[in-house]
Amino acid sequence: MMGSVQLVINILNSVALNHNQDESDLVSKGFIGQSVLLPCTSSRSSAVDVFWRDKDDKVLLDIKNDKPDPGSRDPKFKGRVSSFPEEYQKGNFSIITGKLELGDDGNYECTIFIGTGPETI
């Protein structure tokens, strides 16, 4: 029987608001060939842009004005990343990364850009 390889994926959540950042770190674990949920939520859900990047600054997904932009996705992640557009209005910008590969371990960043008003998250 073949053993499974577990990947450790760190998610760095950043909220950029008037040049201030609030960061919190989460850890998700996945296995080669399987899927992992990478959480990213905000208390604000309107007028936001969300940018998911990996450790090498490759694009997993950009969400602009509540619409995913799959055309911006790095070829490494094409067909492997999905999101929940019906949840954007609730502030849920989490993604699922599937068909995990050995090189997928490491840090991932979800950056949320919120309008120009003095909002607190």
UniProtKB/TrEMBL annotation:
SUPFAM superfamilies: Immunoglobulin. Keywords: Cell membrane, Disulfide bond, Glycoprotein, Immunoglobulin domain, Membrane, Receptor, Signal, Transmembrane, Transmembrane helix. It is found in: Cell membrane. Residues 33-112 form the Ig-like domain. The lineage of its organism: Eukaryota, Metazoa, Chordata, Craniata, Vertebrata. InterPro entries: Ig-like_dom (IPR007110), Ig-like_dom_sf (IPR036179), Ig-like_fold (IPR013783), Ig_V-set (IPR013106), T-cell_Activation_Regulation (IPR051713). It is a single-pass type I membrane protein. This is Ig-like domain-containing protein.
